[in-house]
Each structure stands twice: as C-alpha cells, then as structure tokens.
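Example 3.2
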Amino acid sequence: MRYGFSLVELSIVLVILGLLTGGILSGQSLIRAAELRSVSVDVGRYHTAALSFRDRYFALPGDMRNATDFWGAQEPVQADCKVAASSTMATCNGDGNGLIFYPGSLAHTHHEAYRAWQHLANAGLVEGTYTGIHGTPGPQYTEPGVNAPISKIRNATFNFYSPVATGKNLLMFGRLSDGNDPVISAEEAWGIDMKMDDGKPQTGKVTGPTFATRPNCVTADDADYAVTNTVANGCNMYFIGGY
C-alpha cells in the first residue's frame, strides 16, 4: 500500500503556511509602525523637557551659563569640556547665547549638544544619565544611551542642533555615528512629517534634508519626499523646538 498526502491535506498545509507567513509580515508591520510612532512621541517629550528647563533655570540645557552652580564643575576642569566629569552630574557651563551648539556647527568648544542631555537628566526632566561629551571615535560621535537618548528605532538617536544661519534650536533624528545620518526611508519620513506637520521636507516645523545631501530622501527640487525610493536608510529629520 502506498501512503501519501491527499490534495485536501496539501491544501490545508499551504493555507496554514500562508496564514503563518501573513501573520509574521503583519506583526513586523505593526512593530515598525509602533517604532515610527515613537519618534513623534519622543520629539514631544524632549521639546517639553527643554521648555520646562528654560522655565525653571531661565536658560537652555547645554547653553546654560551657570550649570556648575547647580551640579558642580567637573574635575579636572577642562576649558573645552570634552573630557568626562568625575561624577555623573558634574558638568560644564555653556556660553548663554541662546543656541545649543552641536560640535561641527561652529568651532565650538563647549559641546553644548551633549551637555544638554546631561543638564536635562540632572534636572530630572529626561530619564537616564549622560556623559555630556562626544563618543570615543570622534567629536561628532553620538552614542545612544551614553551621551544621547536611545530611540526605539534601531541605531537611531536624537541630538540638539542649532544651525547658525537660522538661529533656531532643532532636534536632529538620525543614525548613531553623528546623530545626523539617514536611518529611515523617504516614505517613513513623509509619514512622520504628515502626522506632525505639512508633509513637505523644506517647510514647517518638521523638515528633512536636501537632495544635495540625501538624494534618497527628497526629490531633486527639494519640494517633496521621494516616497517611491525604496532605500531603507534614506532620511534623517529635523524638528524645530520653539525654544
């Protein structure tokens, strides 16, 4: 007697495999959707923290002239503030000009963008503890969980940034290295922008990069996100804080 599978049995197996595959793909889509939603939630939390800090201390985190009066000066005292403090809270002062400088935006020595997270944590306005200095590889290296917050999106983080030309303080969102590298697709960036702003990469309070810097993110005329581009890591984003 020969034994084998009937057409009905094979059909049932195929149906089960299809359901399993569909469930896995649906689950992955739901996870990714939750990760992307977390970006706007995090931006809101960090903007609120910076505004609360300003209301409490009459200065911006990182830029605060008298931070050492509250949390102590790091030892040994470093004019450039690039070396980790002797204690978690010991810190450096900023220059008080109202801009949270990011290393590279100017030949700036205070590392205000990294000190900003330390000041916010010292004030109890964000979770975690932060070194207040750049990562080991170099002056613009961001290390999630060490000198900047961890995003739910893998290898992504946030950092403060103040382009001198605009005179505005922003939050950058991008891949770890310098916190400004592309980490999401153009379609994902468009979705975040649409939910928070106007869906355009160069207008409003939520913006993307330019075509010149991120050709996989925006169209050649910089007018729209290149949503048909399938590159997974095509975009980084910027969020104007209003502080």
